[in-house]
Amino acid sequence: MATPDCILLTGAAGYIASHTWLALQDAGYTVVGVDSFVNSSPVVLDRLREIGGQPIHFVQGDVRDPAVLDRCFELGQTVGGIKAVVHFAALKAVGESVERPLDYFENNLGSLLAVSQAMQRHGVFDLVFSSSATVYGEPERLPITEDAPLRATNPYGQTKLVGEELLRSLVACDARWHVACLRYFNPVGAHPSGRIGEDPRGIPNNLMPYVAQVAVGKRPHLNVFGNDYDTPDGTGVRDYIHVCDLAEGHVAAVRYLGEQQRSVTVNLGTGQGYSVVQLAQAYGRAAGREIPLVFAPRRTGDVAACYADPALAQRLLGWSARRGLDDMCVDSWRWQSTNPGGFEG
Ligand code: UFG
């Protein structure tokens, strides 16, 4: 039997990466992971071993350190040689990025440069980059297609926009490179095993982890940021996508790069928008308890509605989301209710 292709994941113990790790293994790939644990837990690795039933190939360290990346490629040599890299490692909190812009530029762009340089050193040129729907800023038209105007409204978004542009320039200058920029909409949910999921530190910034903590009794109610938007019920509308669907989108992108030897930029969303109130109600059904809502002022920087046109990803990658809002809530609740303190609780 041929040796399976080996894929390097940076930020491998993070929320989206850990789900992608399992999806890649399910698709027959071998995975090497690297993480500094600056915003994740080593317990994730035990859980991945437990769910996936395969040995874990892992390097601990910061990917801005070239020696750390060299160790990853060396470890990859022992399991068939790394064929592609999925670069997840990044800081991702919008509010924090406004408070500490230089940290975001240094971390997110520094890591992207270091990863690309290490790839070149080791003769690997297939890269999947974690981008975000944040690159569309306030959308002019819905659903959002990939040719919509790009603009960043905060330093975090700026790092994704500049990251994409840097990679497009690299591809234009050097035909060896093939890059997939994946623009995530709103990843939520958890692995159906309930053993891995999102484990934010401190007060969650994002809606579903906050709702999950209300459901489990850690917080008294959900603050709904704005109920006077131009949306059906006045609350913000987003394209929530099950993290396992998103993970499968990465597998499709890795496969596309390997088979087509072309670059691609696609939305990864469902195409379906739900409001804050709709999500809270669906979560309440999944958890068997109502989520108390308190209407609060709009949050600075939020847009009324944001959802994807996912047709390009379907056409080019042969990928589309399969899981619905109820699956997202049921799987999130299984994770939250069985791990109320997160990985280290
Ligand atoms: N919301 C609340 N209460 C909360 C948290 C969120 O009402 O406690 C609302 C927000 O106002 C928004 C919706 O829930 O209407 C979703 O908010 P999230 O923070 O979960 O998600 P965002 O769409 O604001 O942000 C996400 C990612 C960012 C990314 C952005 C745009 O977290 O990284 O999408 O792509 F930049």
Written overview of the protein:
The protein has 345 residues and is an alpha/beta fold. It has a domain at 6-191 and 241-271 and 310-322: NAD(P)-binding Rossmann-like Domain (Rossmann fold). It is built from eleven helices and 14 strands. It has a seven-stranded parallel beta sheet with strand order 3-2-1-4-5-6-11, sandwiched between helices. A three-stranded mixed beta sheet has the order 12-9-14. Helix 6 (155-173) links the parallel strand 5 (126-132) and strand 6. The protein starts with 5 loop residues before the first strand and ends in a 7-residue tail after the last helix. The model has no long low-confidence stretch (mean pLDDT 97). It binds uridine-5'-diphosphate-4-deoxy-4-fluoro-alpha-D-galactose. Residues 92, 94, 132-134, 157, 186, 205-207, 210, 222-225, 236, 238, 276, 299, 302 line the site of uridine-5'-diphosphate-4-deoxy-4-fluoro-alpha-D-galactose (UFG).
